[in-house]
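Memo to structure team: turn this sequence into C-alpha cells by end of day. - J.P.
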Amino acid sequence: MADYIQTARRVIQTEIDGLSALAQGLDAQFTRAVEMLLAVKGRVIVSGMGKSGHVGRKIAATLASTGTPAQFVHPAEASHGDLGMVTRDDLALVLSNSGETPELADLIAHTRRFNIPLIGVAARPQSTLMRQADLGLLLPAAAEACGNGIVPTTSTTMTLALGDALAIALMEHREFTPEHFRTFHPGGKLGALLAKVGDLMHRDMPLVGQAAPMSEALLVISQKGYGVTGVTDDAGALVGIITDGDLRRHMQGLLDLDAASVMTRAPRTIAPEALAEAALAQMQDRKITCLFAVSDGTPQGILHIHDCLRAGLV
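Reply from structure team:
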C-alpha cells in the first residue's frame, strides 16, 4: 500500500528546503525592490501566466489589502486591450519561473515603451524577463516537489512567499495598523473582530436623571427596548444603571422611589474606541447584556450583546 503520509512529508520538506534557500539568498536586490514599490505613485500591476498567474492574483490581493494599491492583469488579456490598465504611474511585477513565458511579451514591451518600472521574478538570471526588467528577483535553484521537475510546486511556493515578504515589508514601513487593515476588510469574521464599539453602538440611549421617578424610568426602559436605562447626574455624566435585577430588588414600593434610589452605582462601561470583541468578552464575563460606551464620563452610546452577534463576533 502506498505511504501517502511519507509522500506528503517529502513534498512539504522539499518546499521547506526551497523556502530556506530563498530566505538565505535575499540580498540588496530585495531592498531595492521594496524601495521601488514604495516610490510607485499609481498601482502595482502584477502579472503571470498559468500557475504563476494564480500566485500573482494572491500577491496582488495581499498587496492591496495591506496598503499598497495593486491589480492583477492577465497577460493574454493585456494583449487584447487590457494594457490600457497599465499607466506610466504604475509598476509592473511580472512572475515567470522560466522567464520565457511568451504571453508576457506584449506586457513587457509595453513597460519598456512607456518607461514603466518593471520588476521580474524568475529562476533563470539570463531569461528574457530578467534581462528586460529594471530589477530582477531571482528564485533559487530548487527541486520541484513532484520529483521529476515538471509540476510547479516548490517554485510557486517560493514565489508566493516572496510576494508575502514584499507585502509585509511595505506594510511595516508604512506602519499599517489593524485599523487600516479593517478599512479594507469590513466584511466577514476578520472585519467583525476589528470592529470598534463606536461602529456598533446605538446613540439613541435609554437615559434618565437621578431625580426621575421610577414611573418615568420604567417607561424609558420599555420604550428603548434594551431592558436597562442609564442614570445621569446634572452634568450629564453616567452615574448608574437600572437593570431588571435592580427592579426585582426594589419591587416593594418601587413606584414611590426615584432612579437614584434604585440604580446600581458605577456601572461597567467601555470606551467607544475599544474593540467590540473586548466589549463582548466583558459582557460574557459579567453575564450582562448591555454596556454603555462612555467618553470622559459622558455616555456616547449603548451596545447590546445582540449587536455583537449580528456583527459576526461569535
